[in-house]
Design a protein that fits this description.
mainly alpha; single chain; 325 residues; 434 Repressor (Amino-terminal Domain); two-stranded parallel ribbon
């Protein structure tokens, strides 16, 4: 099989037109047409580009005696599906996840900060300072809370829509095209130092954020001081979570492409089995949190629902895994 026939076969296998292939190789459609008709032969740079794009070796493209693409040439395992991730797709996904990680982390931080004004105003109302009454505190505090959650949703939803194109990386089996694994590994190593710093400082802030509240509680400080410390706790915790989420989003992009960590084949299967249960569980938790918080207006206490729900979900997830085994 000559190179012209191989280009036709590989192009059709990926479902691309001549124009689409030409765009990916940064050449004209006429050039692709000439290659496929045998009127001209692509230069060495284009052969290398096509080997990466199609996930085959340059030997396969250049040597007429090689008729079939073996699994060792493409890097695919025997049980991998036909979907192949090219270097272009991998780099585009990593760039997108890096940009959107800041928005997602900011949205999470805003959700944590959302009850701060309500807690502070309720403390002022209880202390009778600055003429703040309880109705004013509730109205202004809830307005700020809903406003911050609205901003967070405005950050989450567009980010989720843009990343939905790559949902298959998290849920399906796929293979990396020839040479892509090395590209992803190199980018991961370059990010490793920053990932560790963000993770360490983020965890440290989340652990130490409660110290001011513990100290004022021991010395029996005034309720307003305690509520102010709760607000400071949430602010410090939000900053720490921002760092953790930002680093985690970028690192999970590397893990999804390399199919390591939480995205191995085995864990993908487990996730598909528990996906519906997880969605229902967190919807119930969110509904319960909002219902109890609005009815009791004890936002400075009801936030504890989230860490408890997280620990409980980890236990449920482990039990589901053991039951499946």
């Amino acid at each position: 099989m000559i190179i012209a026939d191989k280009i036709i076969m590989l192009r059709k296998r990926n479902g691309w037109s001549q124009e689409e292939l030409a765009e990916k190789l940064n050449v004209s459609r006429q050039s692709v047409s000439k290659w496929e008709s045998g009127l001209s032969v692509p230069d060495l740079n284009k052969v290398i580009a096509m080997s990466t794009l199609f996930g085959v070796s340059t030997d396969y493209l250049l040597k007429d005696e090689l008729e079939e693409v073996s699994a060792s040439e493409t890097g695919e395992s025997d049980d991998a599906q036909n979907r192949s991730v090219s270097a272009e797709d991998a780099n585009r996904y990593l760039d997108l996840s890096t940009r959107l990680s800041v928005r997602i982390a900011l949205g999470v931080a805003l959700c944590i900060l959302s009850p701060v004004l309500l807690i502070l105003l309720m403390g002022l109302a209880d202390a009778g300072i600055w003429g703040v009454t309880e109705p004013i505190a509730v109205a202004a505090g809830l307005t700020a809370l809903l406003g911050l959650i609205g901003v967070a949703l405005a950050l989450f939803i567009p980010a989720g829509i843009r990343l939905s194109e790559y949902d298959y990386l998290e849920k399906e089996s796929f293979s990396l095209a020839y040479g892509v694994c090395g590209i992803v590994e190199k980018r991961k190593q370059a990010y490793a130092k920053r990932f560790r710093l963000l993770l360490v400082f983020g965890i440290l802030m989340c652990v130490l954020c409660s110290l001011p509240l513990i100290i004022v509680s021991v010395f029996e400080a005034a309720p307003l001081v305690i509520m102010s410390c709760v607000c400071a706790l949430l602010a410090i915790c939000a900053l720490g979570v921002f760092m953790i989420v930002c680093a985690g989003c970028v690192n999970s992009g590397f893990e999804k492409l390399l199919q390591t960590g939480d995205y191995t084949e085995e864990k993908k299967k487990k996730q598909r089995a528990t996906e519906h249960i997880s969605s229902a569980y967190w919807c119930i938790v969110a509904a319960g949190y909002l219902a109890v918080s609005f009815l009791t207006t004890a936002w400075h206490i009801t936030w504890i629902v989230w860490p408890v729900a997280g620990c409980l979900w980890a236990a449920i997830f482990a039990l589901l895994g053991d039951r499946k085994k």
